[in-house]
Amino acid sequence: MYTEKVIAEFTNPQNVGEIADADGVGEVGSPACGDIMRIYLKIEGDRIADVRFRTFGCGAAIASSSMATRMILGMSLAEAWAVSNADVVEALGGLPPAKVHCSVLARDAIRAAINDCRTRRGLEPWEVRSSGCSRGAGCDSHPENG
C-alpha cells in the first residue's frame, strides 16, 4: 500500500509543468513499466531557482517526481546531484518494493537535467561512478571535481 505522503504527492503534485527557457532538461524512462519522467531546471548562479516536471506513469512515478522536485528546489547543482533514490523514498515515507524504481527514475532525471545544463554551459557532464570510490558505500559521483 502507499503511504499518506505518496497519496498526497500523487493527488496534489507540486511543480508540475515545463520551463520554456530551461537551463537543463532531463528525460528518462523505464521500458519495463512505461514510466517517462522529464525534469526542467532553471539555474541562477549554481542554485536551482525553479524546477518543473512532466511525468507519464503510475501514481508512484508522479509522487516521486513531485517530491524530488520539491527536495532540490534551492539546492546547488552538486547538492541536487547527491540526492539519492533512497532520499526520495524516505521523503515519501516509503514505497512498495515494486515501485522503488520510480524513485530511481526521479534521481536519474535530476542527474540528466544537471548534465544537460552543464553541457549547455560548455562543461563536461558529471559521471556516475559505481566502484573505486574512497568515500565509502553510496558514493557514486564526484561533482565537486568538475
Question: Which features does this protein show?
Answer:
146 residues; Sufe protein. Chain: A; three-stranded antiparallel sheet
How is this structure best described in words?
- By secondary structure, the protein is an alpha+beta fold.
- The chain has a single domain, classed as Sufe protein. Chain: A.
- 38% of the residues lie in helices and 17% in strands.
- It has helices at 4-11, 59-72, 77-81, 85-91, 100-120, and strands at residues 24-29, 36-44, 47-56.
- A 3-stranded antiparallel sheet has the order 1-2-3.
- The chain is globular.
- The termini are far apart.
Instruction: Provide the spatial order of strands within the biggest beta sheet.
Output: 1-2-3
| Strand tally | 3
Compute the number of structural domains: 1
CATH architecture: Alpha-Beta Complex
- Rounded to the nearest angstrom, the radius of gyration is 15 Å
User: Number of helix segments?
Assistant: 5
Q: First CA to last CA: what distance?
A: 41 Å
Overall body shape: globular
CATH topology: Sufe protein. Chain: A
Mean pLDDT: 88
What is the CATH first-level class name?
Alpha Beta
Largest sheet: 3 strands, antiparallel
Regions with little confidence, pLDDT below 50 for 5+ residues: 130-146
Main structural class? alpha+beta
> What fraction of residues sit in β-strands?
15-25%
**Residues in helix, %:** 25-40%
Return the string of H and E elements.
HEEEHHHH
